[in-house]
Specification:
The structure is a single chain. The protein is mainly α and 309 residues long. It has 2 domains: 1-228, no CATH class; 270-309. It is built from 16 helices and no strands. It has helices spanning 2-6, 8-28, 31-48, 51-63, 67-83, 86-103, 105-114, 117-141, 146-164, 166-181, 183-190, 192-204, 210-228, 230-265, 268-279, 281-308.
C-alpha cells in the first residue's frame, strides 16, 4: 500500500479519475435541498456558538504583547488629526457661539459692544484644540500615562465580564439571535451552498485543481510514511488483520444463516430444480442407474417367486 500510494503517476491517475467523478456528483445534488440543509446547519452552529466567549478570546489575544495599545495609538492619532483640521475648529467655534447666544443672550450682547463674539470663539476653539492635542501627545509618548493604565484596567475587566457576567453574555446572545432572525442574514446563509457549489465546480473542472492537488499530496505523504515508518506499517497491518478477522466471523455466521433459511423456504419442486441445476449430468446418471438397478432387482424377485411356485 505504501509503494502504491507513493507512486506519483498512479496517484495522479486515480486522483484525476476521482476529480471527474466528484465533479459529476456535485452536479447531481438537489440545490433546494442542499440550500435548506446548509441553512439549517449554519443556524444550528451559530446558536451553539458562544459569542461572548469568542469575543473574550479575541480581546485576550489582542492584549498579548501590548497590541491593544497599538490600536489605542492609532485611534488617538486619528482623533488628533481630526481635531487639528481647520474645518473642525471652525465648527466648534460656531457651536460655542450658538450655544452662548441661546443661554446668555444679554451677556453676549454686551460683549459684542466691545469685541466680536465670533472672534473670541475662534480663539477659544484654537486653544481648546491645542490643549486636547497636547494631552493626546502626552498619552502617545508615555507608556505609563494614566489614560493608558485606565484603558488596561477597563479592557481586563471587560474580558472577565464577557466570560463570567451572565447579563453581558445574555446581551451578546440576544444580539446574535436578532441577527439570526434577520431575513437578510437568513437569505445570505441560504446562499452559502450556491457559493460552495460554484467554487467546487470551478476547481474540479480545472485539470490543475487545487483540491485534487491537495488530495494527491496527502496520498503521497501517507504512502511515504508507510514506506518509511515500520511501526506505522505494523500498526496498520494489525488493525487490518483484526478488521478482516472480525468481518470473516460476521460474514460466516450471516452466510450460514442465510443459506439455511433459503433452503428451508424452498418447496420440493424448487429443491429438485436447484439440485439438477447444481449437479447436472451426474444427477441424470444417478437417476438412470437407479432405474436400471431397480428394474433388475424387481426382475430377480419375480424370477425367484416363479421358481418357488
Amino acid at each position: 500500500l505504501g509503494d502504491w500510494l507513493a507512486d506519483p503517476a498512479r496517484v495522479h491517475d486515480w486522483v484525476a479519475e476521482g476529480r471527474r467523478w466528484a465533479l459529476k456528483a456535485v452536479g447531481l445534488f438537489d440545490d433546494d435541498r442542499m440550500r435548506r440543509a446548509t441553512l439549517a446547519l449554519v443556524v444550528a452552529q451559530a446558536r451553539r456558538w458562544n459569542s461572548a466567549a469568542t469575543a473574550a478570546e479575541v480581546l485576550s489575544l489582542l492584549t498579548q504583547g501590548g497590541r491593544h495599545h497599538e490600536l489605542l495609538d492609532v485611534g488617538l492619532q486619528k482623533i488628533g488629526g481630526f481635531l487639528a483640521e481647520d474645518e473642525v475648529k471652525a465648527r466648534v467655534s460656531e457651536l460655542m457661539v450658538r450655544h452662548a447666544r441661546k443661554e446668555w443672550p444679554k451677556v453676549i450682547g454686551m460683549v459684542e459692544l466691545v469685541t466680536p463674539v465670533a472672534r473670541m470663539a475662534d480663539g477659544l476653539a484654537d486653544r481648546l484644540s491645542a490643549s486636547v492635542l497636547g494631552e493626546l501627545r502626552d498619552v502617545l509618548a508615555q507608556p505609563d500615562h494614566p489614560v493608558r493604565l485606565r484603558y488596561d484596567r477597563w479592557l481586563a475587566e471587560f474580558i472577565e465580564r464577557l466570560r463570567h457576567d451572565a447579563a453581558l453574555v445574555a446581551a451578546f446572545e440576544s444580539v446574535k439571535e436578532r441577527g439570526l432572525a434577520d431575513p437578510a442574514v437568513l437569505d445570505y446563509a441560504g446562499q452559502v451552498w450556491n457559493d460552495v457549489k460554484a467554487l467546487l465546480q470551478d476547481d474540479l473542472a480545472d485539470p490543475q485543481s487545487a483540491l485534487a492537488d491537495h488530495v494527491a499530496q496527502a496520498m503521497r505523504d501517507v504512502g511515504q510514511r508507510l514506506r518509511d515508518d515500520e511501526s506505522l506499517r505494523a500498526s496498520l497491518n494489525e488493525h487490518l488483520m483484526s478488521a478482516a478477522s472480525q468481518l470473516a466471523i460476521n460474514l460466516r455466521a450471516g452466510v450460514t444463516t442465510h443459506i439455511a433459511q433459503t433452503i428451508k423456504d424452498w418447496d420440493d419442486r424448487q429443491l429438485v430444480d436447484e439440485l439438477e441445476l447444481s449437479v447436472g449430468r451426474d444427477l441424470q446418471f444417478i437417476r438412470i442407474n437407479g432405474t436400471v438397478v431397480g428394474g433388475l432387482a424387481g426382475l430377480a424377485l419375480h424370477a425367484l417367486r416363479q421358481l418357488a411356485g
